[in-house]
Design brief:
- The protein is of the alpha+beta class.
- It has a single domain (18-41, 99-288), classed as Clam (outer membrane lipoprotein receptor (LolB), chain A).
- Helix content is 13%, strand content 28%.
- It has five helices and eleven strands.
- It has helices at 65-72, 105-109, 120-135, 204-208, 214-217; strands at 138-146, 152-160, 164-169, 175-180, 183-188, 193-198, 220-225, 229-238, 242-251, 257-263, 269-278.
- It has an eleven-stranded antiparallel sheet.
- The two termini are 40 Å apart.
């Protein structure tokens, strides 16, 4: 019985090893299969920040008699005036983990032609998507991924344009996906192995471009909009690989990136939904460092 392969959102595929047969992680699609399924965990509710207690006064300091009596004896007589309770500062609330939407085949495959005539509304919508993608310098957050076999994995990601990204999966998956601007590395922390591919061969390069005009720079086969999402589908044909598609979905109101789906040449879909997005977080450039002279991963 044939097993449906899992894929990576970097657009890469590889055969399974015995150590990875019990895992399943899909991070994109096109050339390489990665196993690493991890059940999605509900986000931990934010905790209240505890207020620090005032430090005790040093012995021998000149303190008021009433205060000194409080410190020296727990049997202090009297009812001193109570200070108002300090305000409770809540921690920032994390967004609830989203449920990735399975793609609509009509939006994913479009009309299958590079000579589509889009109307003015579709061109304006594609222009808004292009403007949003071009405005991103850095972006970080969490992701939920659903692979071709329905397995769900979670993790964190950081993007720094142009061309740099790091996706780190939550345990038990040992996978990191790293791009340094020209090369994509798929690292297995458990096996201490690393596979390298040109970034130009992965669909992620469209997300990592410094500036992009979707209609001019890519083969767009579908542009659509509804009450919740604005969607664009890009089709790419490569002689040795086949046809793959990348469907990007944005919030219809603020045009913020919500998720993407990659369909590999074999027709398998991998969907990645992102949330808790932060475009102002300072990024450590060492996160994207790849040792291209060795098959061993660079230590963290």
């Amino acid at each position: 019985m044939n097993q449906r392969p899992t894929t990576t959102a970097a657009g890469l595929r590889r055969p399974r090893s015995k150590l990875r047969q019990s895992l399943a992680a899909a991070f994109g699609a096109a050339l390489l299969a990665w196993p690493a399924i991890a059940s999605a965990q509900a986000p931990v509710p934010p905790e209240r920040i505890p207020l620090p207690k005032p430090a005790p006064k040093a012995r021998g300091s000149a303190a008021p008699a009433a205060d000194q009596a409080k410190q020296d004896s727990p049997r202090y007589v009297g009812t001193p005036a109570q200070a108002p309770a300090p305000p409770i500062i809540p921690a920032p609330q994390a967004q609830q983990q989203p449920t990735p939407l399975l793609p609509d085949p009509r939006k994913l495959f479009g009309l299958g032609s590079s000579t589509i005539n889009f109307d003015a509304g579709q061109r304006a919508l594609a222009g808004r998507m292009s403007a949003y993608l071009s405005s991103i310098g850095t972006l970080s957050g969490n992701f939920v991924q659903v692979g071709p076999n329905g397995g769900k994995t979670t993790g964190d990601f950081v993007i720094q344009k142009p061309g740099k990204v790091r996706f780190q999966y939550d345990p038990p998956s040992p996978i990191d996906v790293i791009a340094d601007g020209t090369t994509m590395a798929i690292r297995d922390r458990k096996l201490a192995t690393q596979d390298l591919y040109p970034l130009s061969q992965t669909p992620l390069r469209f997300l990592l471009s410094d500036r992009i005009d979707l209609l001019a720079d890519t083969n767009v086969v579908n542009v659509s909009n509804d009450d919740g999402y604005a969607t664009v589908t890009i089709e790419e044909k490569q002689a040795l690989i086949g046809t793959s598609r990348l469907m990007l979905m944005f919030d219809a109101k603020d045009m913020q990136l919500k998720q993407w789906t990659v369909t590999d040449p074999q027709g398998y879909d991998t969907t990645v939904a992102v949330y808790n997005l932060n475009s102002s977080k300072k990024v450590d450039p060492n996160m994207f460092r790849i040792d291209t002279t060795s098959n061993m991963p660079v230590p963290n």
